[in-house]
Amino acid sequence: MQIYPLDHVISYARKHSPFYQKLYAHLGKNPPLEDLPLINLADFWQAAAEGLVNTGPHLDGQVFKTGGTTGAPKYALLTAEEWQTACEVAGLYMPMGGLRRGDRVANLFYGGSLYGSFLFAYSCFYFSPVNILHFGLSGNMEIAELLDTIEQHRINKIAGLPSIVMKIIKLVENKGIAGRLCVDSIYFAGETLYPEQRRKINQVLGKHVDFCSMAYGTNDVGVIGYFHKDSCGFNEHRICNTLCRMELIDPETGEVILEANRPGQIYVTNLYKLLMPVIRYPSGDVGQYTEPEGTPDRKFMLLGRSGAVARVGFVTIHPEDVSRTLDNLGAQYDGFQLVLTRDGERDGLRIRIVSNSEVPGLTAELYGQSPLLKDTVDKGIISAPLIEYCSLTDLEHNKRTGKLTRVLDKRFP
Questions:
Q1: How far apart are the C-alpha atoms of 130 and 136, rounded to whole Å?
Q2: 158, 253, 167: which is closest to 212 by C-alpha?
């Protein structure tokens, strides 16, 4: 395990990485973190494709594909020591998230195709200080076979993407076998397990289930936050200060946000990656602190993807706002998806809701939450929102990762 002081990470990158040499060329000696320029993703990955980010040859360790399925493939590189450091430290936090000696855990994350989640979950469980029994199933298996294995081996903890978990729960509901399962906890990562999904799981299984985040991080950035069962609420993590420095940045002013309950874009500086350094690198998420400044491993809440919003005309709608609106109306639903469309010359928004019954007053409630939305509809700038009720299989997922796509843009061919 090897973790470096912040000033060493900066000086090493500046000396050995052509990308950082150029980026920091105008700076004096030993600049503080807040004086360093924020990473521009397009510039970073263009340099990475040309081999200019790395500080040396990649001779051992791991290669993961990152950045989703759009654009040119992007590869996150880690040495063997860097990979082990991340997994060892993340594994030490697992008991804080609820892992207990003797747990029987099904790993349903995706493996292969240079995808990192299965290997990371396996390694976290392996390095955990409590002894558990690991079932390496993977999300690549058929759902029926996964469920049969969970029942047969009396597995009590499931770890996987929410989209995979919900498919299993749907099959449990259809077969009426909830009483034959021992599942008491769900570990998830890669996407949020939304409130309506949690309610559905508890409803189908007929008992309270613990919902625990594996960790917060990405292949390119590394580990950022860990989940503490006794202190973290929905979408909350604690900063893993052992492995990184996390900052919240105001997107309009570039100001570093220190106060609680003020949203900002999350930027990360990794303290264990020297081969492919990431310094003031955007995670792609928006968050806010939920504890006072100075709190050890300060708690923060994820508010959604910084780019994962529905931009209808010039009106911005966050999926989290739609989820909150549905909850306020007491809607009974298993999921939803926002679809951006074109109606002649106007933008439109279709809201796909997985429900057997309509949600009265949804459009009016959305207008009440966003007067700008109603105003632009009234003026004919955008089309009125359309509500579509559908089944779970009608929602579109990322073909490589299996994650539910909360916002789909269907305006372009």
A1: 18
A2: 158
> Which one-letter amino acid corresponds to residue 2?
Q
pLDDT given for residue 69 in this prediction: 34
Q: What is the pLDDT of residue 412?
A: 64
Reference 164, options 135, 193, 123; nearest CA is 193
- Shared domain check, 222 and 74: yes
Distance in angstroms (rounded) separating the CA atoms of residues 192 and 341: 25
Show Cβ contacts of residue 391 under 8 Å, excluding neighbours closer than 6 positions: 354
CATH of the domain at 236: 3.40.50.12780
Give the pLDDT score at 190. 79
Contact 130, 166 (CB under 8 A): no
**pTM flag (> 0.70):** yes
User: Is 42 in the same domain as 116?
Assistant: no
Q: How many CB atoms lie within 10 A of CB 135?
A: 19
Note the pLDDT of residue 71: 42
Q: Give the Cα separation of 323 and 335 in Å (integer).
A: 9
Query: For the chain, how big is the Rg over CA atoms in Å?
Result: 22
Task: List, for the chain, all residue ranges whose pLDDT scores fall below the cut of 50.
Answer: 68-71
SS3 per-residue string spanning 25-52: CCCCCCCCHHHCCCCCHHHHHHHHHCCC
Residues 283 and 332 in one domain: no
In the chain, how long is the greatest CA-to-CA distance?
Answer: 67
According to DSSP, residue 94 is labeled G
Q: Is 353 in the same domain as 376?
A: yes
